[in-house]
Amino acid sequence: MRVASKKNIIVVLLGLLALPLWGADESTAVWTRLYERARSYPQKQQIMMNIVEQHNREMIPVLTEALQEELDNFSNVSGVTERSMQSELMRTIVKELGLLKAVPARNLVMRTVEVSDDSILQAEAVMALGRMGARDYAEPLAMMLRNINFNLEGPQRQRENETLAYALVFALGRLKQAVGYEPVFFASRAWYSSRSGVKELAEEVLTTMVEDPSEGLLRIVVENDEYANKLAALQALERSEAPEEAKARGAAAGLNEGLKYTAGNISEGQVLKSLRLYSLGMLEKYPMPEYPELIPQMKRMIRLYSADRVYDEDEMITLMEAMGSFTGEEEAARVLADFLAYYNYRRETSAPDSYRIVRALIQALGNIGHPAATEELTVVTMSEYWESSIQREAENALRKIR
User: How far apart are CA 245 and CA 220, in angstroms?
Assistant: First the structure.
């Protein structure tokens, strides 16, 4: 180490020892002078580390001025070593500004994100914006995350982009603005590796990010081309704090999407089935206040099953359970009564394709409780073809209706 450099550091240390003797204003002035006297990045970093250790809001002007200086000098730093030391110094500054919630410095911090190509410095600055609560930058941060989700740069910048994506998810989670919800949702579904933690953090953030994300999630359910994304959006909606009516609307849309498409392969078929099952399960938990848009969809499922066995046993049982939650709904009772009439007719010549479906059907009619089902349930109780266990189910259903 050169003699001059040693002398400078000694002067700095003497200054540090003297600081507690002064008030806040004088202390800030001294730190400013000490920082101005530093001639190299190692000296600046040493002084800055002592500043941030105080974690004192009185030091915000010193930090802000130091960051401004580095941004003004950014284009003049060209060497790899010097650029690395500058980035380390700027990381120290923006991190402390974020921890101190120095909102007036947010423009400089955002400028740091824009001018730097160091992903670690960018990430630190982005997280600082989140800690500051810089909501006016929620939209550009959301756009940055959206672009990274597409992975247009491929594997050559994977680690750098994962670092920045993690910071963006963190910041958008802190800012809690609706504009950030969809990019964070797709981050939970995107290409990021497990070691990056991006997906896990995104899933955690989604549960508390906005009070009612139903509008954005419903748009994904209806408009997104990927069946798996439709299902994931519906699952996110159920985990959210959205009103039950919004969850029911989402489930109705999910069921419609699950019925609308024909799978091109086995994998797509499994996803569409999962979408239908999940939608029906939600409809059972969050009944719609009105049913006109749902009954035709459910009736279509029953007809396709009766004719061609398009849907499997699990789906039909879940359908029965969902329709059973439509308490007092005459149209739902008539649709299920017609389905029971189909089974009554078939039972005279052969065993039903599924006793589980028949039991779920009879239980659903009892839960709806509408007299429209009385005739077909009575046929079951009086038939010589039905087993006694099925007849007891029908008797129980009739008692509920009465």
Answer: 18
Question: What domain range is 351 assigned to?
Answer: 290-402
Neighbours of 326 (CB within 10 A): 26
Distances (CA, A) of 231 to 248, 277, 288, 350: 14, 10, 19, 38
Q: Name residue, tokens 């740069």.
A: 153
Q: What's CA 239's distance to the chain center, in Å? A: 9
Measured CA to CA in angstroms, residue 155 lies from 83, 184, 241 at distances of 25, 21, 36
Residue 401 within any structural domain of the chain: yes
Q: What is the DSSP letter of 373?
A: G
Q: Is residue 303 part of a domain?
A: yes
- The tens digit of pLDDT for each residue in 66-99 reads 999 999 999 888 889 999 999 999 999 999 999 9
Q: How far apart are CA 328 and CA 323, in angstroms?
A: 11
Check if the beta carbon of residue 387 is closer than 8 Å to that of residue 351.
no
C-alpha distances out from residue 204 to 30, 200, 214, 397, Å? 44, 6, 17, 43
